[in-house]
């Protein structure tokens, strides 16, 4: 048997990868985070699969499920929201699977930060504006953010930032960002990107607190901030320029037409 850690994507059931959906359709046991993965995603599961919502299970109880699946030689699909590599709490599960001598595989998914950027139709990187994307979050009860990675310190780079679970902490986040970002820096909030209840706010660091109601943006809110989100400096990449050559595209140089001899030169000749 094998355990498959599958990225369920941001929410919309058709944003799971083909590989993930195919594996869901084969697994006899499916563990999913019910608080983050919509039940609509379970449409990809086979009809007789055992479905277990891990929202009520601690790590040891989840380990017991893996052990039971091993004893019955049953493949397990472990559904995580977004991509398992980002805030997925998968490392501790993998360590336990290794101790149980259970094979596992990771199937990547669409992260909520890329889904949020798609929903607001923004590119996170722009030439000569920002070529760096910082993914971060604020400290929570489950795990703290290292002091060296505090938002106030990361903001020094003034790169594009994607701040997970930002909803309840907007005032503190904006205060920290304003230490380094200009007041007119674009801000976009996306609550539950691609879910039916999705909502979006677009403004700036100067307006976001006044224009959003305190407590109206819940935990699963992605905050995008940075100059690249705006319509200001618009420098186009050279990648598709007709003058730019690379391994797959060679620019054909125009042949120069020979200059006609002047009457004076002809006379001399």
Automatic annotation (TrEMBL):
CDD domains found in the cross-reference section: Precorrin-4_C11-MT
Domain Tetrapyrrole methylase: 2-208
A GO biological-process term: cobalamin biosynthetic process
E.C. number(s) listed in UniProt: 2.1.1.133, 2.1.1.271
Species in which this protein is naturally found: Glaciimonas immobilis
Pathway: Cofactor biosynthesis; adenosylcobalamin biosynthesis
Name of the protein in question: Precorrin-4/cobalt-precorrin-4 C11-methyltransferase
InterPro entries the record matches: 4pyrrol_Mease, 4pyrrol_Methylase_sf, 4pyrrole_Mease_sub1, 4pyrrole_Mease_sub2, Cbl_synth_CobM/CibF, Siro_Cobalamin_biosynth, Uropor_MeTrfase_CS
MF GO annotations: precorrin-4 C11-methyltransferase activity
Any one Pfam family match given in the protein's UniProt record, by short name: TP_methylase
Keywords: Cobalamin biosynthesis, Methyltransferase, S-adenosyl-L-methionine, Transferase
């Amino acid at each position: 048997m094998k355990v498959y850690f599958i990225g369920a994507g941001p929410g919309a059931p058709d944003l799971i990868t083909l590989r993930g959906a195919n594996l869901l359709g084969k697994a006899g046991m499916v563990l999913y985070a019910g608080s983050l993965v919509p039940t609509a995603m379970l449409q990809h599961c086979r009809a007789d699969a055992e479905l277990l919502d891990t929202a009520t299970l601690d790590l040891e109880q989840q380990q017991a499920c893996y052990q039971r699946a091993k004893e019955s030689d049953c493949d397990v699909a472990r559904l995580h929201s977004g991509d398992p590599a980002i805030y997925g709490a998968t490392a501790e599960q993998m360590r336990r699977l290794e101790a149980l001598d259970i094979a596992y595989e990771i199937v990547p998914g669409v992260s909520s930060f890329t889904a949020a950027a798609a929903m607001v139709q923004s590119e996170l990187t722009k030439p000569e504006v920002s070529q760096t994307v910082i993914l971060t979050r604020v400290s929570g009860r489950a795990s703290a953010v290292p002091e060296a990675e505090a938002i106030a310190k990361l903001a020094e780079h003034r790169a594009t930032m994607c701040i997970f679970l930002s909803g309840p902490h907007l005032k503190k986040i904006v205060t920290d960002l304003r230490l380094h970002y200009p007041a007119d820096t674009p801000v976009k909030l996306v609550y539950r990107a691609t879910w039916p209840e999705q909502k979006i706010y677009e403004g700036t660091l100067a307006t976001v607190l006044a224009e959003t109601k305190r407590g109206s943006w819940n935990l699963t809110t992605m905050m995008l901030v940075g100059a690249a989100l705006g319509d200001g400096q618009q420098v186009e990449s050279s990648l598709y320029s007709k003058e730019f050559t690379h391994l797959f595209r060679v620019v054909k140089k125009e042949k120069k037409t020979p200059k006609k001899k002047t009457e004076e030169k002809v006379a001399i000749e």
